[in-house]
Design brief:
The chain is mostly helical. The chain has one domain: Sufe protein. Chain: A. It is 55% helix and 10% strand. The protein has a two-stranded antiparallel sheet with strand order 1-2. Helix 2 crosses helix 3 and helix 3 runs parallel beside helix 6.
């Protein structure tokens, strides 16, 4: 397990290093492109995140030492980048640690919240809620 505060600071620093929001969106898209995606067998109604305009699927398994093991995919480039961003925040965290993350604070530090459309913001909130619900059920 890694240090949560250091991981969040590193993520914020990555975005701070980039110039304008066009560069940050490109980086977000690159993060999404680096995700392995999900096989068709895991793209089901059960794994689909409700409340997202784009198609988004998340699989959250019980990983080593009961840490969350998060995998996801989307049919939209920026949204897939958001899945990758959430994966960076939550993957490998034990449920209690995942629940201690304040996603609004992290996204505020990145400056992401004010640069997302209302539809993407709602979708992001749905993804976060799904992760938090899974973490609560495992805590």
């Amino acid at each position: 397990m890694t240090d949560l505060t250091a991981d969040i600071d590193a993520l914020v620093d990555e975005f701070d290093f980039l110039g304008d929001w066009e560069e940050r969106y490109r980086y977000l898209i690159e993060m999404g492109q680096a995700l392995p995606g999900l096989p068709d067998a895991e793209r089901t109604d059960d794994t689909r995140v409700k409340g997202c305009v784009s198609q988004v699927w998340m699989v959250i398994d019980d990983g080593p030492d009961h840490a969350l093991e998060l995998r996801g995919d989307s049919d939209a480039h920026i949204v897939k980048g958001l899945v990758a961003l959430l994966s960076r925040l939550y993957d490998g965290r034990k449920p209690a640690e995942a629940l201690s993350i304040d996603p609004k604070e992290v996204l505020g530090r990145i400056g992401l919240a004010e640069h997302l459309s209302p539809q993407r913001s709602n979708g992001l909130a749905s993804m976060i809620k799904r992760i938090q619900t899974e973490a609560e059920s495992r805590a």
